[in-house]
Amino acid sequence: MSDWKFVKDRSATQGAVWRSADGLLYKRTGDKDLQAETEFQQLAAGLGYPVPEIVDSGSEDGSYFVVERAIGDTSLHEEALAGARRDGQVSDRVISAAGAVSSKLLQAQARHPLPATPWFGKAAFAAEVFEENPDFDNPRIHAAVKRALDRLAQLPIVHGHLDYGLPNVLSVGVIDWQHHGPVPLGYDVYPALDIVAFKGGGKGYTITPEQRAAYTAALDETTASLIGRRVSERLGDFLLVKCFFFLALMRPTDPARHDKHIKWQYRRALFTMGLDQYESSNTIDTGAFPTLERFAAEHR
Ligand SMILES: Nc1ncnc2c1ncn2[C@@H]1O[C@H](COP(=O)(O)OP(=O)(O)O)[C@@H](O)[C@H]1O
Ligand SMILES: [Mg+2]
């Protein structure tokens, strides 16, 4: 149990991920945040969420650690990338695997609704976005947010992942629950393929409109049977929240980092494009987003 190979530093929190020599276990190290993540993951496992089983946790050398079972060798992000390299497009198998895990998550979420509670601030990182982009803290944007929250008010509130996407999905479950918080049913899973567009095209693959439609149709079958509604009618509202999420923590502190400055400006531009579309149609077409490369070329 002591032979751990370093995998990577955690991306949005302190600590690191390690894999056991036989590949059957993963270990995360961290601080209080990891402890809260672990407690949540245990709760989610008890509610039937598709999450890895935790086999050990505790403190060692003043930091916290948790060990869980491996639920596969490759994330759907890695499989999407491999398909794109091999045949020039993401394989439909990745799309159907995402649909299957998403449906499992929806079922577990719908079975355990929470009392109504504010959810937008945490899911959107709204305080961080307004702090870093004070010009967006204006009546027009607050009105759009109010519209989205009103339109989402009919959906049950459930325990959410908040950072659900192909890198955190494997074919049998969902890893990396560091953000977790309350969300309307569907918020995690419906935008999962659209959010690839926020990465700017530099991740090595794109999802076709047909693949997004097939994924959405699979989820709608699940939500129609769970709550009697095709929750895809709220995808635009979810994506407005994602415009916030992907703008959070982007403003560089070092003015000399031109690369980071461009990425921040890119996410600000996507936010504004998303807002314009949302205001006119209640939807956001991520297929219309420019790539980061094109944006950077136009803003040199
Ligand atoms: N239980 C698990 N089963 C399989 N792979 C895992 C597991 N936990 C972590 N991994 C692998 O480790 C990588 C990093 O873990 P993750 O918790 O997502 O870190 P980060 O917070 O940096 O995104 C994942 O992309 C995945 O490849
Ligand atoms: Mg992750």
Please explain how this structure is put together.
With 300 residues, the protein is of the alpha+beta class. The chain has two domains: 4-69, Phosphorylase Kinase, domain 1, CATH 3.30.200; 76-298, Aminoglycoside 3'-phosphotransferase, Chain: A, domain 2 (Alpha-Beta Complex), CATH 3.90.1200. Helix content is 45%, strand content 14%. The protein has ten helices and nine strands. The chain has helices at 32-46, 76-87, 92-111, 120-124, 126-132, 139-152, 209-227, 235-245, 258-281, 292-298, and strands at residues 4-9, 16-20, 25-30, 54-60, 63-69, 157-160, 169-170, 173-174, 181-184. The strands form three sheets. A five-stranded antiparallel beta sheet has the order 1-2-3-5-4, covered by helices on one side. A two-stranded antiparallel ribbon has the order 6-9. A hairpin with a 2-residue loop joins strand 7 (169-170) and strand 8 (173-174). The longest helix is centred in the C-terminal third of the chain and has 24 residues, at 258-281. The termini are far apart. Residues 7-8, 10-11, 17, 26, 52, 68, 70-72, 75, 167-168, 170, 175-176, 178 line the site of adenosine-5'-diphosphate.
Question: Helices and strands in order, then pairings?
Answer:
Layout: E1 4-9, E2 16-20, E3 25-30, H1 32-46, E4 54-60, E5 63-69, H2 76-87, H3 92-111, H4 120-124, H5 126-132, H6 139-152, E6 157-160, E7 169-170, E8 173-174, E9 181-184, H7 209-227, H8 235-245, H9 258-281, H10 292-298
Antiparallel strand pairs: 1-2, 2-3, 3-5, 4-5, 6-9, 7-8
